[in-house]
């Protein structure tokens, strides 16, 4: 994974992090960027910003004042493999612009780069042509709910298993994809009630 200009990561250097199997330990002092690494992984895979970045992601990209610039461009580039072991790359680009009294955050682009095994050529698709946030979890073979609530759950949201019963049920429904089945059952119940009422009305007419 390559990180530039995100939080304390310099926008001028290509900060490359390589993850090893079966386990990679990230060790460092407070403020070294350990949490930022996880946040970048989640952002690349799901398109979601961390919960603590402020209004409209203003604290996500390095502050231009800190960098001594009027604007800072940032990028996350993550190389992954599909569930069938085919390589692909996700690239997310951002910009933070310091105006007179306002810090403006922009999400510039999101690109998915894949390899066509038939033509042996690289292919790229942008967020303007497809829903990158949906495609990446699908290619990985894992649901977005699992990425959000289990694999890349933020430390500020990691205590959800200790929440109230309704919240826990909602999370588990999302993780195990039970929500769509619950909605289907609700629809079937409504249809059954409607048809039962129609049958009663028809019987009354016949009498």
Would you give an account of this structure?
- The protein is of the alpha+beta class.
- Helix content is 35%, strand content 23%.
- The protein has six helices and six strands; from the N terminus they run ββααββββαααα.
- It has helices spanning 34-46, 64-67, 132-140, 144-151, 165-175, 179-206, and strands spanning 2-4, 15-16, 71-81, 87-98, 103-116, 121-126.
- The protein has a six-stranded antiparallel β-sheet.
- Strand 5 and strand 6 form a beta hairpin.
- The protein is elongated, with a radius of gyration of 23 Å.
What would a concise description of this structure say?
This protein is 35% helix and 23% strand.
How is the secondary structure organized here?
Elements: E1 2-4, E2 15-16, H1 34-46, H2 64-67, E3 71-81, E4 87-98, E5 103-116, E6 121-126, H3 132-140, H4 144-151, H5 165-175, H6 179-206
Antiparallel strand pairs: 1-2, 1-3, 3-4, 4-5, 5-6
């Amino acid at each position: 994974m390559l990180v530039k200009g995100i939080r304390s990561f310099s926008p001028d250097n290509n900060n490359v992090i390589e993850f090893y199997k079966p386990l990679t330990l990230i060790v460092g002092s407070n403020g070294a960027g350990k949490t930022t690494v996880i946040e970048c992984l989640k952002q690349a895979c799901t398109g979601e910003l961390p919960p603590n970045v402020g209004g409209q992601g203003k604290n996500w990209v390095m502050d231009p004042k800190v960098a001594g610039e009027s604007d800072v461009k940032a990028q996350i580039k993550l190389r992954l493999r599909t569930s069938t072991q085919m390589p692909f790359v996700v690239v997310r680009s951002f910009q933070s612009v310091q105006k007179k009294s306002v810090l403006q955050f922009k999400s510039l682009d999101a690109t998915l780069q894949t390899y066509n095994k038939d033509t042996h050529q690289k292919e790229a698709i942008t967020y303007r042509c497809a829903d990158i946030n949906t495609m990446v979890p699908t290619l990985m073979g894992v649901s977005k709910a699992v990425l959000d609530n289990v694999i890349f759950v933020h430390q500020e949201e990691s205590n959800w298993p200790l929440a109230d019963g309704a919240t826990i049920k909602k999370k588990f429904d999302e993780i195990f994809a039970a929500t769509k089945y619950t909605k289907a059952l609700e629809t079937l119940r409504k249809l059954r009630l409607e048809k039962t009422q129609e049958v009663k009305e028809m019987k009354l007419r016949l009498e």
